[in-house]
Design a protein that fits this description.
Number of helices: 9
Number of strands: 10
Distance between the termini: 51 Å
Radius of gyration: 20 Å
Largest sheet: 5 strands, parallel
Order of helices and strands: EEEHEHEHEHEHEHEHEHH
Length: 261
């Protein structure tokens, strides 16, 4: 692990985090996640059974916590109180598990984050001992506020959840990345492998996605593509791209000592 992703003091090989919704069945979910190489998988507590509904299929039978880091999230919550209540339930179901993903939505159409309620919930959860990874707007000021509250990672959207529109505002992401002392992960809007690679080339510490894989024509193959894209983007960022040169060219071959010159 020469370049681990460190969140809340724990190191991970993979910088790709994946969701567990929208697959045709649990078998496809597990196959896609295996192909992605992801170690952290996020679960919508309001939509997926991880033990709160006895007698129903349990996702944890397919994705055991001994193998994967389960990241309960608050998808479907529109107030701070609902989000806090949901994650306290998740902590009970997962035997005191502290790492969570907070998202408080503003409206059901855009699924854009409600930032005042997000900040309120984050403050409560951090004080309650949670390690909070937080879905947020690509606003550098509010991202910094969440970090200062004590969130262990900030997760600005690339574009609207499930839109597949890719990164619409790379400049805001760069502002967030350049000012952050905690991991910055793109969350929402990735549509294909090139989007993931661009996020990593910008300097993001990781990418979280669900729909881009689950809604693909061949989800398992797309999961494999996303794994490679995140790895390639990270390597390109570490390598450092060549400078852009506008209105000028630079030949690849030497111009000195040419035959006949």
């Amino acid at each position: 692990m020469n370049d681990p992703l460190v969140i809340a003091g724990k190191s991970y090989h993979s910088r790709l985090l994946v969701g567990t919704g929208k697959y045709k069945d649990f078998a496809e979910t597990r196959e896609a996640i295996d192909a992605s190489g992801a170690e952290i998988v996020t679960v919508a507590i309001r939509r997926t059974n991880i033990g709160q509904n006895p007698g129903e299929p349990n996702l944890l039978d397919v994705l055991p916590p001994e193998k994967f880091t389960i990241l309960p999230n608050t998808a479907g919550c529109y107030t701070a109180d609902d989000a806090v209540r949901t994650l306290r339930l998740a902590r009970e179901l997962l035997d005191g598990h502290a790492l969570v993903k907070l998202e408080v939505l503003g409206d059901p159409k855009s699924l854009f984050p409600n930032m005042p309620e997000t900040l309120k919930a984050a403050e409560t959860l951090v004080k309650d001992g949670f390690d909070v990874m937080v879905y947020c707007a690509d606003d550098p000021i509010q991202a910094k506020m969440l970090e200062e509250i004590g969130c262990v990672a900030v997760m600005p959207l690339a574009s609207l959840i499930g839109s597949g529109m890719g990164i619409l505002n790379p400049w805001n992401l760069r502002l967030i990345i350049d000012n952050a002392k905690v991991p910055v992960l793109v969350d929402a809007g990735v549509g294909t492998a090139s989007d993931a690679a661009i996020a990593m080339e910008l300097g993001c510490d990781g990418v979280l996605m669900n729909t881009a894989i689950a809604a693909a024509g061949r989800p398992v193959l797309m999961a494999s593509a996303m794994k490679k894209a995140v790895e390639a983007g990270r390597e390109a960022f570490l390598a450092g791209r060549m400078p852009r040169k506008f209105y000028s060219a630079d030949p690849s071959s030497p111009t000195q000592g040419l035959i006949g010159s």
